[in-house]
Design a protein that fits this description.
- The protein is an alpha+beta fold.
- It is about 30% helix and about 35% strand.
- It is built from 4 helices and 7 strands.
- A 4-stranded antiparallel sheet has the order 3-4-2-5. Strands 1-7-6 form a 3-stranded antiparallel sheet.
- Helix 2 packs antiparallel against helix 3.
Length: about 240
């Protein structure tokens, strides 16, 4: 008897745990309830480039002027590749003193300017030349490239459609096995999940040898796809 009670309690606990993840559907006669996953592999539509511009000099004015020249080089690179400089966004800009703490009394040794720049590109053919030219100029550091999907809603819709198709097929198979016919959908719930996998291409790129005419690290590779999944719970009537 105690073993039977323990079994019942265990089943109740497991049911409650599952109920926290999925909606609880009251059992109804002449219905079939199924839950299935769907998936859609979407090609990225945006390349997100990020890099830092850093300059250090003895005075704040010299550091500022050097950073300004570096930014102007970046603008020229963008223009030469058919990209308007205003397409790039500044994440932060800072000008701060740099101290030497080797002695008991700190010593001011200069000033440093730091700026973070982000650039979104829809034309992937421009990625490789911009990455290579930024490395050649040696005015940027901590470069990274991620492929993302901005039109996520369309991908979610495709994933939901795939999940519902699988749910209906599973429900129809169950109905046939029981000698019944699948009826109309009476209830459904949907959860979607984005598995965005950023692909860092290059980090902390140093100045390249001018004699080396090697292709950019991003050339001839295909951007990694972005996986979107959906879970559909569906309740169908039975005829």
């Amino acid at each position: 008897m105690r073993a039977t009670i323990a079994m019942v309690v265990a089943l109740i606990v497991s049911t409650l745990a599952l109920g926290q993840d999925r909606p609880t559907i009251a059992a109804q006669p002449n219905t079939v309830f199924v839950g299935t996953d769907g998936k859609f592999e979407a090609n990225p539509d945006t390349a997100l480039m990020q890099f830092n511009i850093s300059a250090q000099e003895g005075t704040s004015r010299e550091a500022y002027d050097r950073a300004s020249k570096a930014v102007e080089q970046v603008r020229q690179i963008l223009r030469s590749n058919g990209v308007e400089p205003k397409a790039a966004e500044i994440g932060y800009f800072s000008l701060q003193p740099v101290y030497d703490f080797k002695t008991a009394k700190r010593k001011l040794v200069g000033y440093q300017v730091n700026a973070n720049v982000s650039l979104k590109l829809k034309d992937f053919s421009k990625v490789a030349p911009i990455v290579q030219q930024l490395a050649d100029t040696d005015v940027t550091e901590n470069q990274s490239l991620n492929y993302t999907l901005e039109d996520m809603d369309a991908a979610k819709t495709k994933a939901v459609e795939d999940a519902y198709r699988r749910a209906r097929e599973s429900a129809a198979a169950l109905a046939r096995s029981a000698g019944r016919t699948l009826g109309e959908l009476s209830y459904a719930s949907v959860d979607t999940f984005e598995n965005v996998r950023p692909m860092p291409i290059a980090r902390t790129m140093m100045k390249m040898n001018a004699a080396a005419a090697a292709p950019a690290p991003t050339e001839e590779f295909t951007p990694q796809t972005i996986s979107v999944t959906a879970h559909v719970n569906a309740l169908f009537g039975l005829k």
